[in-house]
Each structure stands twice: as C-alpha cells, then as structure tokens.
C-alpha cells in the first residue's frame, strides 16, 4: 500500500486512521492544508473495494477542499474524512459518535460536515462529541434548512451569469437556452433561478418525476440523457455526474459556455485545453459550486443567510479573474483556477 507516493498525497499535513472496535469504525481523516485556517470538508461513507481506494479518495477530496475554500475566500483549509462501510446497512448512532471522538482528538484542525452517504442526523450524533462539525440546522433561521444545495445552486447561477457576461458583454439570460443535465438537489434549484431570469430550459434526468416537474413548473423541454450534452443550447450546466466532458462527448458539444455544479466535469485536465481551443468558455466546477461550503461556514459562525449570499456573490469576481487571466496567458480556465488557488493558500513547491 502506498500513501506518501499516492498521486493525491500532495504534501498532506496530516492523515489520521481512526478505529473503534466497539462500533467497527474504520475511518481516515485527511488534513491537506491549514495555511488559511482549520480544514473543513465532508465525511463520506462508502463501501470502498479496498483500503487503498479509501485512502486515495480521502486524499483527493481533501486536497480539492483546500483549492475550493481558497478560491471562495474562506478562512479555511482543506480536509475530508471517509468511513469505510455501506451507509445503507452499517450506519449506527454509536458509529457516528465514534467519528465525533476522532474529530475531537484533532482539536479543531478538522471540521466535519455532511457528504455522500452521511446525513444531518449523523452530524447531530457527531456533534454530541465535538463542536468541530458543520451542517447542523439549529432551526433559528427559517431561510436555513441545513441543506447546502440551494446555496450551491446560487453560486452556480452567479458563476454562469458571469460567464455569459464575459462572453456576450451582458448577463441578461432572457431567451438564452440552457441545457441542464441532472435535476437533483442542485440542478432543480438552478433551473428555478434560470427560469425566473427568463432562460429557456432544456433538461434531462434519469428520474422521470423530476423531469415532469421541470416541464410543468418551469416550462422546460425534455430530451433524453443521451442527447443533453450535444443539444443545441447556449449554455450547458452539468449537474449530475463527473467526467462528462471526455474524448467521446467533447466533439459533439454545441454550447459555447459550460457552467454547472457537478464535481470533476472534465475527465482529464487536457479536456480543458481542448475546450479553450474550441472557443468554449468553461467555468471551473469547483470555483462556482462552492456556495454550499460558504453556507456551512456561515451557519457554524451563527451568521445570517444574507451574509452567506453576499459572500457567494463574490464567486462572480473570482471566475471573471480566472477568465481574464486564462485569455491573457493562453491557458485553460482550469489551469488558471488551480494556480490562483495555490497563490491564495501559499502552496510551497
Ligand atoms: P443529486 O443526487 O441530488 O442529483 C443528481 C441528479 O442527477 C439526480 O436527479 C439524478 O437522477 C441525476 N442523474 C444521475 N445520472 C444521470 C444521467 N446519466 N443523466 C442525467 N441525470 C442523471 O445531487 P446534487 O446534490 O444535486 O449534486 C449534483 C452534482 O453537484 C454532483 O456532482 C455533486 O457532487 C455536485 N455538488 C453538489 C453540492 C451540493 O451542495 N449538493 C455541492 C458541490 C457539488
């Protein structure tokens, strides 16, 4: 098994293996970088095929959080945790209390939140053992449900509008055709905002109930999941899966702008370079989908939703800086986003 030589290790400050024989907990907590503040990142529960897979995943995800928090100007570093186990059959309250004790032992260097396979109820168990936890809804603010998705959608909306402004000189979405792949928690909220701004929606989801709802409530036009990426649209907003911009899909893209919530939309960095050569403006996913992390931070601080929203609006200026610099330096927007993040968190060579 390799850890220091794992491709995602990238000088992690600390990697902790947490176990608890009574509950069967096997978890890994990775703290990538705390230059800007304590590391924050979700706790993922997943039935990893091997321990190496779990380690690689936590390292990759925690490194990503350093970049995301730095670019959205939060006083936070990057961290993440994974529990090796099946969330459908192996969750117990005691397991999450054991996670809470492991987080507490890190003394605030890592703040845990929800992720794939974990829920607000699990965070409540963790919170019984440590204060270093986010994503807990205290019920004090009705605009806050504990669900970060509407805030993620708002950041994507801001980033998308900035991309339109950069390309067209105006951020007016009236009559613009936006193809949205995935109508889940983020995608549907984004569609509502786009509809309100006058955009025409073209949507696809494997969930026919969500598609029907978009048709009836938002006047969307539905296409099949095989057509959505190549549909005739001004903007493509991927809000379902990663890796959708790849060697197979890239040539058939028709949208001039890609701006969506899905993580890791480009299968490889080189696809960002191809998009640039094609004249497609790509708003890097982790830059514009950071609204949820902003909300977790403000919620933890007990600060109002209005402050979350005004902070999220700063995503517009960041993504514009990335577009301008990418043009000046003839580089892909993803490449520039990474360099800007590294400048902000002070990456050492
Ligand atoms: P979700 O699971 O609620 O929604 C995903 C939707 O995509 C579902 O409706 C699903 O049916 C659909 N889908 C799955 N396969 C599809 C396919 N082949 N074609 C079309 N639709 C398909 O997830 P979410 O919370 O809305 O997140 C969406 C994306 O945004 C994910 O990649 C997630 O990692 C990323 N993201 C989410 C947040 C957040 O706050 N929820 C934050 C940052 C990034």
TrEMBL record:
<keyword id="KW-0520">NAD</keyword>
<dbReference type="Pfam" id="PF00208">
    <property type="entry name" value="ELFV_dehydrog"/>
</dbReference>
<keyword id="KW-0547">Nucleotide-binding</keyword>
<dbReference type="InterPro" id="IPR033524">
    <property type="entry name" value="Glu/Leu/Phe/Val_DH_AS"/>
</dbReference>
<dbReference type="InterPro" id="IPR006097">
    <property type="entry name" value="Glu/Leu/Phe/Val/Trp_DH_dimer"/>
</dbReference>
<feature type="active site" description="Proton donor/acceptor">
    <location>
        <position position="80"/>
    </location>
</feature>
<dbReference type="GO" id="GO:0000166">
    <property type="term" value="F:nucleotide binding"/>
</dbReference>
<dbReference type="GO" id="GO:0016639">
    <property type="term" value="F:oxidoreductase activity, acting on the CH-NH2 group of donors, NAD or NADP as acceptor"/>
</dbReference>
<dbReference type="InterPro" id="IPR036291">
    <property type="entry name" value="NAD(P)-bd_dom_sf"/>
</dbReference>
<comment type="similarity">
    <text>Belongs to the Glu/Leu/Phe/Val dehydrogenases family.</text>
</comment>
<keyword id="KW-0560">Oxidoreductase</keyword>
<feature type="domain" description="Glutamate/phenylalanine/leucine/valine/L-tryptophan dehydrogenase C-terminal">
    <location>
        <begin position="146"/>
        <end position="348"/>
    </location>
</feature>
<dbReference type="InterPro" id="IPR046346">
    <property type="entry name" value="Aminoacid_DH-like_N_sf"/>
</dbReference>
<dbReference type="InterPro" id="IPR006096">
    <property type="entry name" value="Glu/Leu/Phe/Val/Trp_DH_C"/>
</dbReference>
<dbReference type="InterPro" id="IPR006095">
    <property type="entry name" value="Glu/Leu/Phe/Val/Trp_DH"/>
</dbReference>
<dbReference type="Pfam" id="PF02812">
    <property type="entry name" value="ELFV_dehydrog_N"/>
</dbReference>
<protein>
    <submittedName>
        <fullName>Amino acid dehydrogenase</fullName>
    </submittedName>
</protein>
<feature type="binding site">
    <location>
        <begin position="182"/>
        <end position="187"/>
    </location>
    <ligand>
        <name>NAD(+)</name>
    </ligand>
</feature>
<dbReference type="InterPro" id="IPR016211">
    <property type="entry name" value="Glu/Phe/Leu/Val/Trp_DH_bac/arc"/>
</dbReference>
<dbReference type="GO" id="GO:0006520">
    <property type="term" value="P:amino acid metabolic process"/>
</dbReference>
């Amino acid at each position: 098994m390799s850890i220091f030589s794992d491709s995602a290790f990238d000088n992690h400050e600390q990697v902790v293996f947490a176990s608890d024989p009574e509950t069967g907990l096997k978890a890994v907590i990775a703290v990538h970088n705390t230059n800007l503040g304590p590391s924050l990142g979700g706790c993922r529960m997943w039935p990893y095929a091997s321990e190496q897979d779990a380690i690689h995943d936590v390292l990759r995800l925690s490194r990503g959080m350093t970049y995301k928090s730095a670019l959205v100007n939060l006083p936070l570093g990057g961290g993440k945790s994974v529990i090796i186990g099946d969330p459908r059959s192996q969750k117990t309250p005691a397991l999450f209390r054991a996670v809470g004790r492991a987080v507490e032992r890190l003394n605030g260097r890592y703040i845990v939140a929800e992720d794939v396979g974990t829920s607000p109820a699990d965070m409540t168990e963790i919170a019984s053992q440590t204060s270093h936890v986010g994503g807990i809804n205290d019920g004090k603010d009705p605009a806050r449900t504990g669900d970060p998705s509407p805030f993620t959608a708002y950041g994507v909306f801001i980033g998308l509008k900035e991309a339109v402004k950069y390309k067209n000189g105006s951020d007016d979405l009236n009559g613009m055709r936006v193809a949205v792949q995935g109508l889940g928690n983020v995608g549907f909220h984004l569609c509502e905002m786009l509809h309100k701004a006058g955009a025409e929606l073209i949507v696809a989801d494997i969930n026919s109930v969500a598609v029907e709802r978009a048709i009836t409530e938002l006047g969307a036009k539905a296409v099949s999941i095989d057509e959505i990426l190549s549909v005739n649209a001004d903007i493509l907003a991927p809000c379902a899966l990663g890796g959708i911009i790849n060697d197979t899909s890239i040539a058939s893209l028709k949208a001039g702008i890609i701006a969506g919530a899905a993580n890791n939309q480009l299968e490889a960095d080189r696809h960002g370079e191809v998009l640039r050569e094609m004249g497609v403006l790509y708003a890097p996913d982790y830059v514009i989908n950071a609204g949820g992390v902003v909300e977790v931070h403000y919620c933890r601080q007990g600060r109002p939703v209005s402050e979350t929203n005004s902070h999220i609006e700063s995503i517009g200026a960041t993504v514009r800086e990335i577009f301008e610099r990418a043009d000046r330096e003839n580089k892909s927007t993803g490449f520039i986003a990474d360099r800007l993040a590294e400048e902000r968190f002070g990456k050492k060579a």
